[in-house]
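Summary: Need help interpreting a holo structure output

Steps to reproduce:
1. Submit the protein chain below together with the SMILES for zinc ion.
2. Request a joint structure prediction with the ligand placed.
3. Inspect the structure token block that comes back.

Expected: a single structure record containing both the chain and the bound molecule.
Actual: see attached output.

Input attached:
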Amino acid sequence: MLTIASGMSERAQRLANACESRDGAMPLDSEVGVGTARKGARQRLWAFATAVVRNRPRVRSFIDVARFLARSTGGDVGSCTLCGKTGRFLPMGSPPRPNAACSHCGGLERHRLFGLYLRQHPGFIARRLVLHFAPERPVAKAVREAGPELYRSADIEVGRADLQLSLEKIDLPDESVDVVIASHILEHVDDKLALTELRRILAPGGHAVIMVPIVEGWDSTYENSAVTTNAERTRHFGQRDHVRMYGRDLRERIAAAGLDLVEFTATAQECLAHGLLRGEKIFVSTKPA
Ligand SMILES: [Zn+2]
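--- attached output ---
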């Protein structure tokens, strides 16, 4: 039962009630209008916190302040190859990597490396049929802006992309895609199945953009069937859902799937200008025409 607080018109109360009833917020009750003076410190703190969360403009202003502080105190200044803006790159990761994230679009080093590739290969996406696995937002935006004829994103989990697809068994016809983007996915899956599927869905002359964590000092990829828990996978492979750590033989695995390979690496000057990881590679794998 709604009680009209003193000093508040019935119309205002009705509107307040309607607002409160949205989004599962707590209902208005007879305590409204009493104010926070009678409430304890913990209740006042809770009321403030919930008000911040509910009041989106205020949340936005907090985010703006946080971004301003981040831009003022982050790492090196450089230009982002994805959003085109110049600013400081922020530390990110565990342990934190310096100059990791663009303070404007959030793009990470590997995303900006692909952005650099797109800049240097302007026809790579234009008028192509593009399938983007596990779409990273800043990359997806750059790819869409590069003018594909059709762009679809895909993810193993429902609701994260346009399509729910597994890279190990891609529910798409043979030779139906011109460009597949699969960045930091192969280390999560059965890569023999995945590479075979990539070759199958690519049109002749089509490209798979492959990026993975790789230890170039190792001849062979490290896999270990005795590693089964999240904690062990983190220790052995660097992340709880990784199932291997690639060595130089990634190239042989790509070749074994029947894909030709061209490797792309940024120059030292490009690494400095765009906050890129030195030596990081894009493995552009092409189905022979
Ligand atoms: Zn950016």
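--- end attachment ---

Reviewer comment: The first helix runs from residue 10 to 20. Confidence is low (pLDDT under 50) at residues 11-38.
Status: needs-info
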